[in-house]
Amino acid sequence: MRGVPALLLLLVAPAFLGAQPARLTATFIGNMAFAISDGQRTIYTDFPYESGSFGYMKYDFETVPKAPGALCLITHGHRDHFDAARFEKMDAKVIAPPELAATLPKDRVIPFAPKMTWSDVTIEAFKTPHGSIDHASYLVTWHGMRLYFTGDTDGTEALLAARNLDAAFVSPWLLKKVQEEGGRIDALRIVIYHHRTGETVAFPKVWVPKQGERLVLQPAK
User: Fold this and answer.
1) What fold, for 7-13+21-219?
2) Is 99 helix (H, G, I), strand (E, B) or coil?
3) For the whole model, what pTM was predicted?
4) What is the pLDDT of residues 159-170, one digit of tens each?
5) Is 173 left (phi over 0), alpha (psi -120 to 50) or beta?
6) DSSP string of 17-59, one letter each residue
7) For residue range 9-25, what is the model confidence (pLDDT) as tens digits?
8) Which of 3, 51, 62, 175 has the fewest CB atoms within 10 Å, counting from its CB?
9) Where are the domains of the chain?
10) pLDDT below 70 — which residues of the chain?
């Protein structure tokens, strides 16, 4: 990982910070679901999903705050990543791989492409392997910060090719594979997601969030 920090990562934003440059707040919902907001717009990653599916994290969909006009950024259609019935209840657009997007109302889908925009956010998509299902990993550039989301893939090529990441959101098994290959993730911070409750991850300088915990991502001055 890069040694010179260009990003502050805090578990709780202190009240005394006052006026700050644009920053992103990421709240962990469960599985690979984060609510990421700059205070005006919100992106949900792999949300909404089916609570407790495949033995992964449970949550209460009704109590999760729903930002109006949001974007749901979905890596693939497995139930522990996306629930179409719950999505219908949200005021949100969606980006998803074509196989899943084709099953959703067209007026709510942002057409899938190698590079997409939503408001002032740029989203780059990378086709990545996950069994036989249509799957994508994403690089999100927002307020100058570069956030990479692996999804469920077990392929390391796209992740290791990404450069100058402020944060990489990586599954435990993919991080283990990177270690086994002797690879290097070019990111200031590595955030583990899709872990099981209480799971430990033996890797330096990673953050393994608990449900409801929050990160504040902010560019250096």
Assistant:
1) Metallo-beta-lactamase; Chain A (3.60.15)
2) helix
3) 0.89
4) 999 999 999 999
5) alpha
6) G-S-S--EEEEEEETTEEEEE-SS-EEEES-S--TTGGG----
7) 444 444 444 455 689 99
8) 3
9) 7-13+21-219
10) 1-21, 220-221
